[in-house]
Write a structure and sequence with these properties.
Chain lengths: 100, 100, 100, 100, 100
């Protein structure tokens, strides 16, 4: 899993059953302090996340297939939660309530 | 999944049943704004994509095996859609119709 | 597996059974001498590790599913041990007892 | 899959049945124009490739196990074809016949 | 698979059956000419390798599980051979006998 920020959405007429009707979010990995830390990828939204949200992205094994309840879904990158807060050492480096 | 641009094609007499007759596309990952963002890889075309197209590439788990309907196909990187448009925040950063 | 340092924690209302009640640790990969060596990721704690600890992180195959005893857990990155010491050549480059 | 150039061979008395008698090729990923584009890895030769050849390397899922017809072979990086030519846009950026 | 040099060992009281009693080697990926080429990882020793040895590391699919004969071992990075020699083009760029 990794921390990321939702930076956009992609619209494409993909003809794969497992992707139909799903929102494709552009997610950019971020370090605990919020700086960009990796290449933007595309994830399926499972947490009603929107642009600007700090999110928890799962990309492990056949994670998405299991969460989506579809054994044959060729997907593993999912936004599974909007982050409440992040602590680094004793400091609160991200707090969703302050941001809102 | 990731965004990419189709930058070329490769021709090689590969003798693997799952690859016979398939178009091998060179795809270069791009950031939402279109800048190159990663190393070029080779993907199987499943979206009638051509050189210059902005595309959605899937490379997850045993994705290609499932999409191609061939459980033993040793392939996971597929072009699954030509992108219509990409939004980053409130801005439309890519629009296929403008480009065409 | 890789060496890492625990640098923080993440709190997010993730609604996935396999993650409920689990501590989400921010782990930063480190070189043998302790310098940062890679992007921070999120791991499940299986070793009562805390911020500042040097730890052994496993991220291989469906590792976490096996260790957690849950075949369907979409998790593979786990902190499996707090490191006692690291030897590089003949030198002791990290010693947990000195640090404590 | 990715494009690579064969840059050498490795000899090691590995005692794993699936590797016995196999040629271990050092392959360096290259961009379409031939520049180095990634770290050298070791691949099993399945295409009678030699040093200097531009090749197609497969490293997807359990690819090698399937191609080698050995379900338990712990191998996934294989040279599966010597490249005939590469087109980038309208230009022929690599042509095996010219090189020979 | 990749070439690496053994640079150290890690000691940690990991409580996972598959890791008990195993030597955890710090291995640093190297280019054919011996220069460092990637981040240090931790591998299980299967070749009686020691610090300073040039080794062949396998990290493919569920490789380790298969080699260790333990289907549930959450391990995939193994040192499977000490390298005898490496040829790059016509040159012998590494020779274990000279080094010894």
């Amino acid at each position: 899993m990794f921390l990321a920020e939702v930076v956009g959405t992609v619209v494409s007429p993909v003809q794969i059953a497992a992707l139909e009707g799903r929102t494709l979010l552009l997610v950019r990995p971020v370090a605990p302090d919020g700086r960009a830390a990796g290449k933007t990828r595309i994830a399926i939204d499972r947490a009603q996340a929107g642009v600007g949200d700090r999110v928890l992205v799962i990309d492990e094994g056949n994670s998405a297939r299991q969460i989506l309840g579809d054994k044959t879904a060729p997907i593993k990158t999912l936004v599974v939660g909007v982050v409440d807060y992040v602590e680094a050492g004793d400091a609160l480096v991200y707090d969703h309530r302050v941001r809102s």
